[in-house]
Amino acid sequence: MGERSDRASLMTDPSARPLLVIIPTRSRPEAVDRVMNAWQDTGAFQVAEPLWVYDRDDPRAAEYLPKFDRWGGLLRCRSIPQWKPMVHKLDVAALDYARYFDHRHIGFAGDDHLPRSHGWAHDMVAALDFMGTGIVYPNDGYQGEKLATSWAMTADIVRALERMVPAPVEHLYCDNAVMDLGRALGALRYLPDVLVEHMHPVAGKAADDEQYDRVNSRGQYAKDRPAYKRWRADGGPERCAEIIKGVGVNG
Description:
Blueprint: H1 7-12, E1 19-24, H2 30-41, E2 48-55, H3 61-71, E3 76-80, H4 86-100, E4 105-108, E5 113-115, H5 120-131, E6 135-139, E7 151-154, H6 155-161, H7 174-185, E8 188-198, H8 210-215, H9 218-233, H10 236-245
Parallel strand pairs: 1-2, 1-4, 2-3, 6-8
Antiparallel strand pairs: 4-7, 5-8, 6-7
């Protein structure tokens, strides 16, 4: 199966649904059926399209392809040559699709986020359409309003910032940074009745594995915590908000 994400196809495919949800993954091919079944059960495919991003150097990369083929035109997949941090995957994929495709909104979910509320994708699209420019996030069944462990934003935000995650982090604190940006814009909305459950070990809903251990390691915190704190202390949310509103200098 060839990649479905070359720029020529992005610019010519007219079938875009309004919401693209980027799902980075590594060494969890079993997650594809689990997540896609949840999407199907909740009616998400009518308005949302998942984009799975995986690494070609993943030792289990070949196991993903039959899963993607099974779901056919309901999803897209994109591979990168070798492992990169999650935020890199999000930023690159989001910017390509915001620039070259017809999705109005770009979202993020982990391969451990399972939608539970029927019509969740419709609700997110409706909220974003009403806002015009903004960010929404669902209830994840654990953090709730406190933290956007998954989210969606209007594509104009991605185009203005030329990335999806505004802070220079690799993985941790990306959700905090997205919420900071939404607050600075005055355009952050929590959807308490929309449940996209985060099946995470911290919530007692999954077992630890190598991927969880890596991204929650002391080394990852040592990189991401100071980077996030500097960005926030230096006015990063406000500066990004000005760029999006067209009154700042995009540099």
